[in-house]
UniProtKB/TrEMBL annotation, chains A, B:
Keywords: Flavoprotein, FMN, Monooxygenase, Oxidoreductase. Pfam families: Bac_luciferase. InterPro entries: Diverse_substr_monoxygenases, Luciferase-like_dom, Luciferase-like_sf, NTA_MOA. Belongs to the NtaA/SnaA/DszA monooxygenase family. It comes from the Bacteria. This is LLM class flavin-dependent oxidoreductase. Residues 35-384 form the Luciferase-like domain.
Amino acid sequence: MSRRTLKLGAVLLGVGGPGQHRTWLDPEIPADASVDIDWYVARAQEAEAAKFDLVFIVDSQFITPDSPHHYLSRLEPLTLLSALALQTRNIGLVGTATTSYNSPFNLARRFASLDHISRGRAGWNVVTSGDAGTAGNYSRDEHYDYATRYGRALEHVRVAQGLWDSYEPDALPRDKEAGVFLDPTKLHALDHRGEYFSVVGPLNLERSPQAHPVIFQAGDSEEGRDLGAEIADAIFTHAATLEQAQAFRTELRDRAAAKGRDPENVLVMPGIFPIIGETDEEARAKQDAILGSKSFERALKELGRPFGWHDFTVYDLDAPFPDVRDAGERSFRTQANAISKLARDENLSLRQVVERFSQSWSSPFVGSPETVADAIQAWYDAGAFDGINISVNVPSEFALFTDRVLPILRERGVVRREYESSTLRGNLGLPEPENRYAAARAAAPQDEPVLVS
Amino acid sequence: MSRRTLKLGAVLLGVGGPGQHRTWLDPEIPADASVDIDWYVARAQEAEAAKFDLVFIVDSQFITPDSPHHYLSRLEPLTLLSALALQTRNIGLVGTATTSYNSPFNLARRFASLDHISRGRAGWNVVTSGDAGTAGNYSRDEHYDYATRYGRALEHVRVAQGLWDSYEPDALPRDKEAGVFLDPTKLHALDHRGEYFSVVGPLNLERSPQAHPVIFQAGDSEEGRDLGAEIADAIFTHAATLEQAQAFRTELRDRAAAKGRDPENVLVMPGIFPIIGETDEEARAKQDAILGSKSFERALKELGRPFGWHDFTVYDLDAPFPDVRDAGERSFRTQANAISKLARDENLSLRQVVERFSQSWSSPFVGSPETVADAIQAWYDAGAFDGINISVNVPSEFALFTDRVLPILRERGVVRREYESSTLRGNLGLPEPENRYAAARAAAPQDEPVLVS
């Protein structure tokens, strides 16, 4: 089998990269973009015109006045994506939803509805909620611990997949002449009783065009990687260097294979931050301007997020980095631990940590259109990723990517010229999941001739 | 104040009325209409062209093979309504969502998102889930008892309203020049700790165009009426006779007044089933054909629903109606009790009960366009309702109403000629809720001059 073309995801108002906190100040972005449906429609249509595989909506259910600004007020992802569904035709619609504070019946139903409405373009980015404060919005005194979060996530997704199988493909003859709506032998209760959820079923919605909406997952912890290898069709991640990206993808594929999965069906798609200029020099100057725009004070506040929005302003900036690992235990633990470890290993002060993590960032994809295209192709050829996610927020920057970089990659056969399919699963080159009951029926000895439907 | 025009709701695939179970067999309705977004878009646009106030989507999260057919497989209401939002401009979008199996933070956010996306046309039909089997889909062995269902509903709605007030109207200056996104003194945590829910807040979504999406409520029990009088902007109900409808509306208005509310802001909107012919005779023949189409076997099965899908086929049809009141205790209790009481009072057999409740129904709105228009106006003038809900399922029948009945009512000034507002609240003539924190601020003595924003 020939390798897939490079998959392209467009992140709307995504977190990450330098300057993220300044998005709302950009003269090209309406300050209220995060609640303006027309803005989302325009960005999704631009990404579709450039033959992107998907738009991706991040999410969180907890805010503080220190949240990056757009996140203080934004639309709920599935409501938003459903509105986009009838304004687009081919692009995938991937929404973030947490397994920690939703019930599997409700989420399975909402994603299956989106899949019907979009005629097969729904995707679910499965998260467990890193912000510990989320618990307070859901009648809990404390956020679930790490093991519980990931245990719930796995069971939640398995229940959703079971509900999506409730109806066999031919369960609803809807034969008006014969007066037969349902074949009740092909509608199945799930009867799930697990550690975290009990769900009888069946789902009150038939098999959707993709059978199962595409599952995305992010999360870099041991538990996160294990969950991704188990359930994900595609993994969102980050990629600081080519070697790290290669190592991550190799590890994920190995984990998936160890679980009996075909690693070709687990796509690794890091977020990258191309900075494009007419020349390499112009692009580097652009990067310097972006980095310089972030204040130390803002960076100090944002450092608190992986540590459950811990307040770092109370410490001496030039004393050794404080030991606040406990604060991160129920938040973004992997990131918090990595920061703490580096600070210990290199004996860094708080000031040095802030500078290291927030100010001295450099994109591996900076330069002229040719330079950026070359770098993307080199990483792709080296097996660093199956696809990339890039921000679609600033129209002029996105246009530099679609109008200057993509044509080079298209000429080289790295990205598609036209959509191959009307479904997200089809465009990503992923197989359609088999219905578990239909599969069992096909495997069982037949007493009667099978009717052709 | 002059009285409002008669409000018009269009029910898509709504339950009720004779022949409901046969909807999918209608030659004008695609058999898969319940999952076909194009069908919903077309119906909503027809209702909007006729200047209806709203489309209304019913819901349930529990199915059995005996469910009325379309309900075996249908789209989730909010996902569906969000897709309709960008295909319509003026019509209200009212979705059913249960307070028994949703968290207030999630529902508040989803309805506020729909309100932003639709530019002010969202409505929430608050239900508590009558089908006791729903519990099994939400990790519960048993459905909540009646008192708990209604206690949760009231607290749930109050929490949602509190979350909708999180941002004062001018909390987000988003002043790019001054670099000020948020005025943190105008963003408020709710800090709710109640009997059923604890929710810290704030909501991560600013005040929506209607401030609070419009609240609808149905439910005919004592608890249901009390809840409606307390929280509802509009009440969905049924209306068998003019006198019953008058009495219900008077009672609801009195209850609302007793709670300190202006009864003018509680609209009573029963579902009615006009059957229209060129002549009264033709219409009556149409009604007879609809009634005759329902089999006794089907009616016997459907009688089970208010009693938690109790199986009535096991009883002797000609023995006295069995005492199965317990079966209805956690389902549609009011309806189950009414049926049981009538059977006892009149000493009816099971067969007679089936015939009474399913076969001998008669619409008060049967006749020529003039006859139906006269009846609607007579009820409206007599204070039987503030608005009506009718089914929009069968295009030719709906066209008879919009093209033949509405022009008569329009000529008489009973219904509108044009939308008065771009919001549902505006078209229903309901006041905009005041933000609780802004109100407190306005009421408090001011230390500083108030800035005009």
